[in-house]
Amino acid sequence: MKKLSITLAALLAGAGAALAHDVPADIAMSPPKGDFQAVSGLVPLPDFIPGLGQLFVDPSTLPAGPFLAYDRNGELVSTIYMLPIDDLSNPDKRFDNLSAPGGAVDHVDVYFNAGHPGVEMPHSHVVLWHVSPEDEARVAE
Asked: What's the Cα-to-Cα distance from 117 to each of 38, 43, 46, 129, rounded to whole Å?
């Protein structure tokens, strides 16, 4: 019985690790495949933004996104939505079925942004972190 418990615990631990890092191969590393383009190539923003990372977006999804954010090693760390405040305060506007293309979400941050190139209007950043709070440091500087 003890051997079965140890084996089951090992299998569950391995499954948890696989699920926690279950990032689709086409977006796991920078640059992502598909219609995603570097934000720095679309608007006058730096290639790497401290606190967010290197951002990619499918231009057809602007302004909301999703934006895929990568650390300096090119690994996906978060999915970001930029939701205009005017849209959030409009009872007729909805943001349904927003995806988390980066896989499992460890935690979520939401904060106000007054606007920047590409999303000039005041908006909220909704950051779906695919890494732990400790690993956020990978994009801090």
From this structure: 13, 6, 10, 23
